[in-house]
């Protein structure tokens, strides 16, 4: 077995445990351990990405028990991409936190590592129950991160966030129970074979379980009508936490694209393509609601939260098409939107700190350092809207092109292009309000060490265009793997233990 596969889980687990023990250690010690662990995770993610880039699918049998009986981790192109994306975002977020956010609570860096543990585990796990376990780990850590620093706004937002996710966890368990009760397994590769051979009387219960799972994943992704928790929660969080949360909704997206094509795909018999009739209508409505929410919001960070909702809808349009081209476009767009929205959350925090009005979108003072911050805002605005020459345009064009053979083409083009046009006007108004009106703020602007993480994440958008060919090719091959699933199933079920167990003779 390749022991590299367990490292994205072991490293943040050990670092988080050490940080809990070192809670009373000097802040610089905790910072060094937190940042060092995150950089190690980035190096591991790069190594695993290179391992999976040629199409290699690898399985790791925890406890050396073969599937479907034991816990298994699976690395393929999609898992490797998500690990690398999370590590890059985490480096930007934790570096930004060094400038002040981690002062608000002694356990910030420990919670940050446990959050990465949950995220990495969710991307690597090969069965539904452990997907639930890692969901709970990342959610518990996110509760602490959201509330760290205190205050009534964070408490209110945190209460809504916790209650909704507890309901989601309850529904997740019910869905898992229904799936297990009808198939006798929770291993994803085993489920891919079992669902297509269900007895007719078991198919409705399995379908109910699958749709409950879709509901839970939709809640995690902030899909309409389960989106209303996100803007307030993200607006209340600190800048570094909100930036890391930019990948939280992508866990729900990942779960949809991992579970449903594999388990409820074209070979699932009576349950074939279970999610597809629901995804496109919900995705288009999510774009509409997110767009108008961003236009109507009078709070900068809340407005960025609505942009996350717009991106969720756009991603699910590509996935809902159910084609290689659509899923490939969604994967490219996923990389783009995660990095850009993460950078925008950091930038929004910088802008709010430099204005007497904070994050409120009302005429007042221009933020200190307006020239640099305004340039970064323009870069982020162009990228998130999908204007040339940045990566948002490439991602949306891939999805729009994939929609051409679909009967939904008119609705998809109208909603996505209409949303982009409205956001162009809305974000232009925000930029004018922040950077062209009012008086200059007194005091020095933010230091370059504070600006650098936001500039780093936003500056990756042009690189996604420069390397768009290889990234698009990688996304296309990943989409083929996802919609086929043969390599995933074969690797999981055929990976043998290192030490085969010899049956004992009866006395």
How do the strands line up in the largest sheet? 1-2
End-to-end Cα distance: 34 Å
- Beta content comes to under 5%
- H/E topology pattern: HHEEHHHHHHHHHHHHEHHHEHHH
Task: Indicate the structural class.
Answer: mainly alpha
Helix content: over 70%
Number of H/I helices? 20
Radius of gyration: 22 Å
Give the mean pLDDT.
89
Spans of at least 5 consecutive residues whose pLDDT stays below 50 are none
Please give the number of β-strands.
4
Shape: globular
Main β sheet profile: 2 strands, antiparallel
Describe, in plain words, how this protein is organized in 3D:
The protein is mainly α and 507 residues long. 71% of the residues lie in helices and 3% in strands. The strands form two sheets. It has a two-stranded antiparallel sheet. The longest helix is centred in the first third of the chain and has 32 residues, at 152-183. The chain is globular.
Main traits of this protein?
mainly alpha, globular, 20 helices, two-stranded antiparallel ribbon, 507 residues, two-stranded parallel sheet
In short:
With 507 residues, the chain is mainly alpha-helical. It has helices at 7-21, 27-52, 77-97, 108-124, 128-147, 152-183, 188-194, 203-221, 230-236, 239-245, 248-263, 276-296, 300-320, 324-353, 370-385, 391-402, 409-435, 448-466, 468-484, 486-494; strands at 58-62, 71-75, 365-366, 439-440. A two-stranded antiparallel sheet has the order 1-2. The chain has a two-stranded parallel ribbon with strand order 3-4.
Q: How are the SSEs ordered, and which strands pair?
A:
Layout: H1 7-21, H2 27-52, E1 58-62, E2 71-75, H3 77-97, H4 108-124, H5 128-147, H6 152-183, H7 188-194, H8 203-221, H9 230-236, H10 239-245, H11 248-263, H12 276-296, H13 300-320, H14 324-353, E3 365-366, H15 370-385, H16 391-402, H17 409-435, E4 439-440, H18 448-466, H19 468-484, H20 486-494
Parallel strand pairs: 3-4
Antiparallel strand pairs: 1-2
Helix pairs in contact: 1-2, 1-4, 2-3, 2-4, 3-4, 3-10, 3-14, 3-18, 4-5, 5-6, 6-8, 6-9, 7-20, 8-11, 9-13, 10-14, 11-13, 12-13, 12-17, 13-14, 13-17, 14-15, 14-16, 14-18, 14-19, 15-17, 15-18
